[in-house]
């Protein structure tokens, strides 16, 4: 049997930021329903790397 040490675990919270591609607003953690700044929907958000990780 071979183990897979680098297999990602589901349910584990990874440090993820979301950035609104319309206005540049950044959100930490969960993706909001819509941008609190410009009001665009969550489909306008892109995942961005978290600084410091
Ligand atoms: Zn926005």
Can you offer a commentary on this structure?
The chain has 53 residues and is an all-beta fold. The chain has a domain at 17-48: Rubrerythrin, domain 2, CATH 2.20.28. It is built from no helices and three strands. Strands 2-1-3 form a three-stranded antiparallel sheet, with no helix packed on it. The termini are far apart. The model has no long low-confidence stretch (mean pLDDT 84). Bound molecules: zinc ion (ZN). Zinc ion (ZN) is lined by residues 20, 22-23, 25, 35, 37-38, 40.
Note the topology:
Layout: E1 17-20, E2 26-28, E3 45-48
Antiparallel strand pairs: 1-2, 1-3
This protein binds zinc ion (ZN).
Residues 20, 22-23, 25, 35, 37-38, 40 line the site of zinc ion.
């Amino acid at each position: 049997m071979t183990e897979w040490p680098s297999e990602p675990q589901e349910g584990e919270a990874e440090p993820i930021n979301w950035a609104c591609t319309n206005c540049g607003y950044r959100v930490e953690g969960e993706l909001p329903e819509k941008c609190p700044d410009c009001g665009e929907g969550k489909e306008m958000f892109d995942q961005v790397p978290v600084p410091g990780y």
